[in-house]
């Protein structure tokens, strides 16, 4: 199922969930020409935000991606509190939720490195390009090397455009 | 000054340190190498678009990939006689 940012982001914003778009989709918003099949979000781990996140996603039937069916998995605030990072499949597409990325980067640590995007009729936070590069580099995955190279070129091109 | 740590331990620690540093340098070299192969024309075209237009363009690509997947599956089913 093709994941559509226009379907996933607005319900979360309307439910006042605190999150930052990271990963490949953030790369797309920065101008990447690579294809990505899921949405990656860093979410705030405050009690209230976890409640809001659980309620906002519940109608879209989140379930653990690639897990056997009929597992005793319940999507609610308790599950989120007991976990940290979730790779989910939902009725809106695949969604990865991160309480932390690259070791210890939380929502509040990344907040100063995000900016507001206005799209799909809402405003939401997206990670800035230098930080996206840093996160991908810190992950140290070989599959990310080409993506990092492209993001570095994008940074060069955007800086040239600004001059 | 004589170290109070066994020489073998110091040597292993130094080797580990240089292996980590070398790996990082090798990774950076590889990324820089990949940068030469990136098609900048595609990126420059994307940079002319708004955030929303970039997301919509990506969605159209995803939908096309899905369509191709479905066509491939249909073709395979046909050739399998299913």
Secondary structure layout plus pairing:
The complex is a heterodimer of chains A (163) and B (82).
Chain A: H1 5-14, E1 19-22, H2 23-30, E2 38-43, H3 47-57, E3 63-64, H4 77-82, E4 86-90, E5 93-98, H5 107-110, E6 114-119, E7 122-127, H6 129-139, H7 145-162
Parallel strand pairs in A: 1-7, 2-5
Antiparallel strand pairs in A: 1-2, 3-4, 4-5, 6-7
Helix pairs in contact in A: 6-7
Chain B: H1 7-36, H2 40-47, H3 51-79
Q: How does this structure look, described?
A:
The complex is a heterodimer of chains A (163) and B (82). With 163 residues, chain A is an alpha/beta fold. A 7-stranded mixed sheet of chain A has the order 3-4-5-2-1-7-6. In chain A, β6 and β7 form a beta hairpin. In chain A, 39% of the residues are buried. The longest helix of chain B has 30 residues. Chain B is elongated, with a radius of gyration of 26 Å. Chain B starts with 6 loop residues before the first helix and ends with a helix. In chain B, 7% of the residues are buried. Classes of the chains: A alpha/beta (163), B mainly alpha (82). Chains A and B meet through α2, β6 and α7 of A and α1, α2 and α3 of B.
């Amino acid at each position: 199922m093709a994941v559509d940012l226009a379907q996933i982001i607005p319900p979360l914003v309307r439910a006042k969930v605190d999150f930052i778009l990271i990963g490949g989709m953030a790369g797309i918003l920065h101008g990447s020409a690579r294809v990505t099949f899921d949405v990656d979000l860093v979410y705030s781990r405050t009690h209230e935000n976890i409640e809001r996140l659980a309620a906002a996603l519940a109608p879209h039937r989140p379930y653990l991606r690639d897990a056997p069916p009929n597992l005793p998995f319940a999507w609610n605030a308790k599950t989120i509190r007991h976990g940290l990072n979730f790779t989910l499949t939902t009725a809106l597409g695949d969604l990865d939720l991160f309480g932390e990325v690259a070791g210890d980067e939380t929502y509040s640590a990344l907040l100063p490195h995000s900016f507001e995007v206005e799209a799909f009729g809402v405003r939401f936070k997206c990670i800035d390009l230098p930080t996206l590069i840093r996160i991908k580099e810190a992950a140290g995955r070989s599959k990310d090397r080409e993506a990092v190279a492209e993001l570095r070129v994008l940074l060069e091109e955007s800086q040239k455009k600004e001059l | 000054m004589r170290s109070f740590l066994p020489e073998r331990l110091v040597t292993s620690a130094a080797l580990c340190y240089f292996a980590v540093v070398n790996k990082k340098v090798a990774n950076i070299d590889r990324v820089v190498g990949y940068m030469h192969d990136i098609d900048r024309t595609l990126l420059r075209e994307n940079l002319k678009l708004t955030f929303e237009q970039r997301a919509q363009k990506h969605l159209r690509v995803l939908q096309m990939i899905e369509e191709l997947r479905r066509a491939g599956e249909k073709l395979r089913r046909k050739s399998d006689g299913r």
